[in-house]
Specification:
This protein has about 250 residues and is an alpha/beta fold. The chain has a single domain, classed as Rossmann fold, CATH 3.40.50.300. It contains 10 helices and 8 strands. It has helices at about 25-35, 55, 65-70, 105-115, 135-140, 155-170, 185-205, 220-225, 230-235, 240-250, and strands at about 10-15, 40-45, 80, 90, 125, 145-150, 175-185, 205-215. The chain has an 8-stranded mixed β-sheet with strand order 3-4-2-5-1-6-7-8, sandwiched between helices. Helix 6 links the parallel strand 6 and strand 7 (about 175-185). The two termini are about 25 Å apart. Bound molecules: adenosine-5'-triphosphate and magnesium ion.
Amino acid sequence: MPKQHRGPRAQKICISSGKGGVGKTSFAVNLATSLAGKQKRVLLIDGDLGLANVDVLLGLNVRHTVRENIEEGRELAGLLLPVPAGFHLLPATSGVPEMANLSFEEQRELTEALDAIMDRFDFVLIDTAAGIGDSVLWFNAWADTNVVIASPDPTSMADAYALIKVLVARHQKKTFHLVTNSVTSRKEGEEIFAGLSGVAAKFLRVTANHLGALPHDATVVRAIRSRRPFVLEAPASKVSLAVMQIADKILTL
Ligand SMILES: Nc1ncnc2c1ncn2[C@@H]1O[C@H](COP(=O)(O)OP(=O)(O)OP(=O)(O)O)[C@@H](O)[C@H]1O
Ligand SMILES: [Mg+2]
């Protein structure tokens, strides 16, 4: 694990979508890999405490869970896994109860444990569960930067809006960064962004920024099968170039 240093604390970026299966995990893993490729110290938190996700995607074998660590009072740092793609992962494994099932005290302990390792990283990315359950809202409230992914599917746009709405109402979030995924053209990505940012500005009075559009690309599915980030498997593919461009933008946020 990177040594502790006295530099600025990590920028915490939460990746959510409302609807499931929109591409959160694929994007989070590949963004983490891209930022690590730019010599940034990156921690990816698998915030889907209910289901194993990132570890499966990366072909890792995880033995301990965050909850076990909290229960046994162990250091959270001991759970961080160095991943061959160049970043660290805080995994979650199957069967771990949802965040909602953590007591208030356990939630506080988790926050303290996470905050204690923040200065070892430049970026902390959180790949959340689908929906707008407690864990999703909790990680979004904790983060500095809120990234919402939407696909051309109208239900995805509606769910992204619902997520933004609840984050505005309950956590006073004012700025959102949108990623459009599985689009067939850049124009389609722009249209999804324009629709979502338009209603968010009109009804919620919040601003949204389009981080980028990721094309629908068979490379994504192939990379998942081979359990390697697509930015490493196929760095010249359109989807990889799009994620790398987003990584560049994130460095300027
Ligand atoms: N740009 C893309 N092009 C093609 N297929 C994609 C793309 N992005 C995602 N997919 C497909 O969508 C599936 C779901 O992606 P992923 O697991 O990243 O979504 P998720 O939002 O994390 O899902 P969940 O809500 O279940 O956590 C992937 O298995 C992949 O097949
Ligand atoms: Mg996922």
